[in-house]
Amino acid sequence: MTKQSHYNVGIYVRLSQEDERAGESISIENQKKMLTEYVSQQPDWSLVEICEDDGYSGTDFNRPGVQKLLADAKAGNINLILVKDLSRFGRNYIEVGQYVDYIFPSFNIRFIALSDNVDTLERNSTAMDMMPIMNLFNEWHASLSKTR
Predict the structure, then answer these.
(1) I need a labelling partner for 51 at 20 to 30 A (CA). Which of 83, 89, 110, 127 fits?
(2) Domains along the chain?
(3) Residue-wise pLDDT tens for the chain (148 aa)?
């Protein structure tokens, strides 16, 4: 992926019912605040949209907010997707990996999971090397929540 001179940013936030038990720090409003502040600090970035799914599990991608975000990315309306962390984007090891490793690069879309230090522009980073393990852990966490 080549660095672009300007990024049109789509922010994605998600909170599932299970996540609500984890506390206020991952609330929709806190995610939006953190991510919009980050965008505002970046030169040559424009916030285009914020898509959200409140009350949806990240175990599949049949969520209205994420579907809108993905459609806008594929249509070229945004070229950078920003999330708080990988688990907000999804808790399905295979699907998250397919988007980050194959689909996004094919559309020249940069993906950043801010708290996890994942940035597809930095393919050789330790965070990118650890991403599959983080995704696997996120899926495992979701499976534990179902059994409780």
Answers:
(1) 127
(2) 7-147 (3.40.50.1390)
(3) 677 789 999 999 999 766 555 555 568 999 999 999 999 999 999 999 999 999 888 888 899 999 999 999 999 999 999 999 888 898 886 888 888 888 999 999 999 999 898 899 876 656 455 555 555 445 545 455 554 4
